[in-house]
Amino acid sequence: MVRKFKPISTSATTPVENKKRKELLVKVPKKENILFIGSENFYNSFWLKMMFISAAHAMARDSSRFRQADKKTLAYVDSGYTRIEKLTLDYLQKELGFEIKKLASSSDLIACLNSDRQEYKLQDVVFFCHGEPGRIALNYWSSAEVDLDLGNFTQVSANAFLPNGRLFSFACRTGVYVSKNKFDSEAEAKPEESLAQKMANHFHIEVHAFLRRSYYGDVLREKSQSEVISSTLKAERESKEGNVIQIPPEHEALPHPGLDDSLNPWRGSKREGTVGYALWRKRGGRTLPTAAETPTGLPTEMRVFRPA
Questions:
Q1: What counts of helices (H) and strands (E) characterise the chain?
Q2: pTM score
Q3: What are the pLDDT digits (tens) for 170-203?
Q4: In this structure, are residues 214 and 291 in contact, taking their beta carbons and an 8 Å threshold?
Q5: Is there a single domain that holds both residue 290 and residue 149?
Q6: Quick check: is 18 in a domain?
Q7: Cα dist. 34→60, 131, 158, 161 in Å?
């Protein structure tokens, strides 16, 4: 009897189909956005104490710059803020789904940027803090440095970002290399040697940064509102001292013992009656920071630096 053997089955797919199937098996990275918030111990006043936190709220609502992502992180320096001031971060956590991280060192900052980059790639990264040429300073005016600068930024993986990733620095002068208050030309400031350009080259992304100092004065309120805000606070303190004070229609004053307390009776905060309080706008920042008046001789727009 002749035994019949069943032929060995072959793949039902063509080589082209097999290639496509393999491509589908390649893991597509998820997207992560990060908002970095620095401490505010430099100006330390009623009008500006909450400027970085309020600007972060404004960015979180700006879908053109802060795109949809699989993960959203808010990393901040827990220095100089009271408990009630930090409660304003709860909205970003509870309502908008941010994961909150505290930064205490430059190493923490680098680790945050490098964390879990096999699973998540960085899409939009934004810094609200102080800065100077060559240095994004999240804990400015403090001995505990939390910096991203020309000396350490290359410790962040060059592959940390998506190909369409972006970094926004609202710190002062990230887009220049030379520190002066007056320039005769943009070339004199050497933007091609700046931290912004170096990061664009390293990460192969767009970096958006100011060549001038950044201005946060309009983030919390319009200047025309200042007199009404301060006079309302001063009057309400007579019966509500130490409590949160409502300043209609959209602001409130958060108690911050000792804030801007000076022995000089002619200091503006003494006359205004704003000592010991920090201004907060209930919906967060009304706008994002813009370029300040200095250094002169440089453009006012936020420059886009691309890989050279």
A1: 8, 15
A2: 0.90
A3: 999 999 999 999 999 999 999 999 999 999 999 9
A4: yes
A5: yes
A6: no
A7: 10, 18, 17, 12
